Amino acid sequence: MLLKSKEMLKTILFFIGLAAVLFLLRQFVFTPVVVKGHSMDPTLADGERVIAFKNTKIERFDIVTFPAPDEPNKNYIKRVIGLPGETVEYKNDVLYVDGKEMDEPYLDEFKSELTDGGPLTYDFSLEDIGAKTVPEGEYFVLGDNRRNSKDGRMIGFVSEDKILGDVKFVLWPLDRFGTI
To answer: pLDDT per residue over 99-119, tens digit each?
Structure first.
């Protein structure tokens, strides 16, 4: 009887410890995210489940999640295009950062599927939203589906302290399981 009680106690303590470790990982290391909408097509699709890692250094072209500044209780997922202190401009569907042309290979497939002859990303500069450069401590973000994305062109810059995580991994659906 005493042996069964000890075994039961060990099992209960194991599960309590496991729950505590998972809770701490969720609080400080990663957060699960469900993609809602089509603004990140074709990179991320509506309904996909992804993992965003917290406390990572944000770099250009990272995909980040953050609270929607214009819709309470909703988060956005967008790609970082401009870093603090940089100028950002699109001309003829080409990204220029600080006047230098930047390659965006993740858009090649989407651009090749356009049939109307128009650009994926219409001409734009930060001056269109009243800025010369990306402010310190903030980022300029865009959705990959530039024609169907509420992003930095409408909502402005995203503060570094508002970024919930850096999306690096797809969990679901299983055929997309793996790193982005």
So the answer is: 999 999 989 888 888 888 888
